[in-house]
From TrEMBL:
Residue ranges crossing the lipid bilayer per the database entry: 17-36, 56-76, 88-108, 114-131, 138-155, 183-201, 229-250
Origin species: Microvirga splendida
This protein's UniProt keywords: Membrane, Transmembrane, Transmembrane helix
Name of the protein in its database record: DUF1624 domain-containing protein
Domain of life the protein comes from: Bacteria
InterPro entries given in the database record: HGSNAT_cat
Annotated ranges, domain Heparan-alpha-glucosaminide N-acetyltransferase catalytic: 16-237
Pfam family, one: HGSNAT_cat
Length: 335
């Protein structure tokens, strides 16, 4: 039995270890589902603010964490008998080219929040940084993971807010991006993946999973997992290519965006201890002020820059009665 260059276990009859493909397939299907919901929210077709809803945010992080963790698992499966440098650098080259393409595409479509260090950037860099840990003792790998998770809790600085340093992950308010998985703490998941990969090999789980599932859904997940990069690169252009004409022909009711803003604003306001009636009045007033000041278009943006957030706060502060009080809602930092 051996491992091929893609990190998949092969037996005498050429069967693959399907565990990694199944998990990756499930994750990429989740990504497509999340981005569909995000697109519907961004275009005003639904009233849920997917980009700021806690449940959707948690879902997105679980998906990203799955992909990052699988980096460590795959590295162990692919290179535990020695690093195959040719296959490794080919993969890094493909990932780097795809990451550059994502940056360029989002820079054109979302210039304020383009992806400068997203999941593909992270996977490419983390794969290289993880190489020394493939030969390190497991306790060293675990200690490294603990360190990566701990550092951003103990230390942050505004110095790391700018894009050229934000990828490190130690900023206090990094430049907004539609996808952001910085070194700290996300690299810690790669190290945990290495430990999990070693566990799969040492427990001989790999030899027990040399099977080809017959169920249609599982075969679908396998195919999706093996083509995850292609699906990742293609699904958003396809989704937006379908949804934009729909919105152009049947524009969504503007009340959908109003409802999304008001819901987020009231929820945040009530969370500060204000009464429901006070929050409703203040948020209704904020919506009117933003429209009067010509700032309503910012409400529809998936993320706001600090300057945009300040402009929204300045326009709405009168509705909350105190200039120094954070403004609850879409552009606020109130928790």
């Amino acid at each position: 039995m051996r491992l091929n260059g893609d990190g998949q276990f092969r037996g005498k009859v050429g069967q693959r270890l399907v565990l990694v493909d199944l998990v990756r397939g499930l994750a990429i299907i989740g990504v497509v589902f999340y981005h569909l919901a995000w697109d519907l929210s961004f275009l005003g077709i639904v009233g849920v603010d997917v980009g700021r809803d806690p449940a959707w945010i948690a879902f997105a992080r679980v998906l990203a964490g799955s992909f990052v963790g699988l980096v460590g698992v795959s590295l162990v499966l692919a290179h535990h008998q020695g690093i195959r440098w040719g296959a490794f650098w080919r993969r890094i080259g493909i990932l780097a080219a795809a990451a550059v393409a994502i940056t360029a595409a989002t820079l054109l479509t979302f210039p304020q929040t383009f992806i400068y260090f997203g999941i593909l950037h992270a996977i490419a860099l983390f794969s290289v940084l993880a190489l020394p840990f493939l030969r390190a003792p497991t306790w060293v790998v675990m200690a490294g993971a603990a360190l990566v998770f701990t550092v951003p809790v103990l230390f942050r600085s505004p110095t790391f807010n700018e894009r050229w340093l934000a990828w490190i992950g130690l900023g206090t308010a990094p430049t907004p991006s539609n996808d952001f998985e910085p070194l700290f703490p996300w690299f810690g998941l790669v190290l945990l993946g290495i430990v999990i990969g070693r566990g799969l090999l040492s427990s001989r789980v790999a030899t027990k999973l040399r099977w080809q599932p017959q169920a249609a859904f599982l075969r679908f997940l396998l195919t999706a997992g093996r083509q995850s990069l292609v699906i990742y690169l293609a699904h958003q252009p396809i989704l937006l290519g379908i949804l934009y004409p729909v919105v152009w022909i049947w524009p969504p009711d503007s009340t959908t965006v109003d409802a999304s803003f008001l819901q987020a604003c009231r929820t945040s306001c009530v969370g500060t201890g204000e009464s429901s009636a006070t929050c409703q009045s203040a948020c209704d007033c904020s919506a009117r002020e933003l429209k009067r000041a010509g700032l309503w278009s910012l409400v529809e943006q998936p993320q706001l820059t600090p300057d945009q957030r300040n402009r929204i706060d300045e326009a709405a502060k009168m509705c909350f009665g105190a200039a120094q009080r954070p403004i609850p809602g879409k552009g606020s930092t109130t928790r």
